[in-house]
Amino acid sequence: MEKKKRARGLAAQKAAKKSKIEQEPDTSNAQTVMLEQIVEEGDEIGEVVALYMSAMVKCETDDIAGALPLFRGTINESDRILRNWDAEKQEQQTRPPPKFYFAYGSALYELGRLSQDEDFEPYLDAAEERLADGLERFDELEKEEDKKENMAYAQKIRVALAKIWIAKAASQVQESTSSVPDLATKALDTLDKVLAEKENELDTNDLVEIGAIVQSHGELYGDLEKQSKFREWAEKVLLRVVKDEPENVRALTELGLGQLSLANFWLDAADKEEEEEEEEEEKEESTTISQEEKNAQDALLKSQEYFEQVLNLSSKTNKVLPRMHADLAEVLINLSNLVSDEGEQQKLYQQAAEHIQNAKSVAQSKELEYELPEGLQLFLEEWSSSQ
């Protein structure tokens, strides 16, 4: 079989995470879904928070089509509550509690992040405004017991604001410049303060999410030193989760993606080095790998270990998702292109093809809206035609 090009997967992976939505779901019955939290009858704010949390659960299982109407429902209900609140309680000069603004602002952020063909910036601005209102509301609380009761949501709001700042900073990152945007630095400083708070520690889901977001931001930088600032921060947080919960699939997945991203950085560097050498003079094909390729290989082996753990753990609970097979397939393809022995290379290709087929089978059997990354689809077609 002719040697294949690497299946560059970072862009494709992110595209896969934002699953393609063929048709906009109807949001008129958003509140008729089964909520993930028990809410007392008549507790409108509790329902909004539960609606948002239900949407986040959908996201965790890659059910983006199911999450979108719930995020829209959260926003629509929040708008309605706020309008009625302003009309009914102006004389009392009170505002909804911090948890309301947390759900409202976070839903705006998530909807903007997941909506295709729409400008993210207006969503970010609206989300930031609502979350800032939530912190102001927290600061207005006078009773110590009220402060204590709402402290956890105040921390969640600070984390949500940091996510928004990182998203805004992404548009300011340029590979040609060495500077880190002030908003990104502000976000990390805020997260460090939140993580240092021992009495109101973040839950595991929050830790994994911020680790993933910071890690993804680091991938935007062309300079390894700048990347490392964010990669190492994220890895520290994710390893903290795995230390407490060795079988946390989400944390293990993000650790694997981090190593895969690092491998792709080194593979790109190896390609550039190879192109420069070819321009200087023609050289005989080498059977050894360069230092950049060795660095990539080391990262890929770590990534493979994480992804295999993810698949093994998920298989035990029947919670395997298509992307788990796709992630491992990409690692195997990249590893195969660093192997000089043709027999070993073919073996890795075969394993990769099997995982791609498994990704498609899982999506079909679980009726999930999943789009296989283009690079993996092309690899599978080429592999199948050569057999």
UniProtKB/TrEMBL annotation:
User: What UniProt keywords are attached to this protein's entry?
Assistant: Coiled coil, Nucleus, Transcription, Transcription regulation
Biological process annotations from GO: positive regulation of SREBP signaling pathway
Subcellular localization is given as: Nucleus
Compositionally biased intervals (Acidic residues): 271-284
Which region ranges are annotated with the description Disordered? 1-29, 271-295
Question: Coiled coil located at which positions?
Answer: 124-151
Query: Per the record, a Pfam family?
Result: Nro1
Q: Which GO terms describe its cellular component?
A: nucleus
Listed PANTHER family: ENHANCER OF TRANSLATION TERMINATION 1
Family indicated by similarity: Belongs to the ETT1 family.
| UniProt protein name | Enhancer of translation termination 1
Organism lineage: Eukaryota, Fungi, Fungi incertae sedis, Mucoromycota, Mucoromycotina
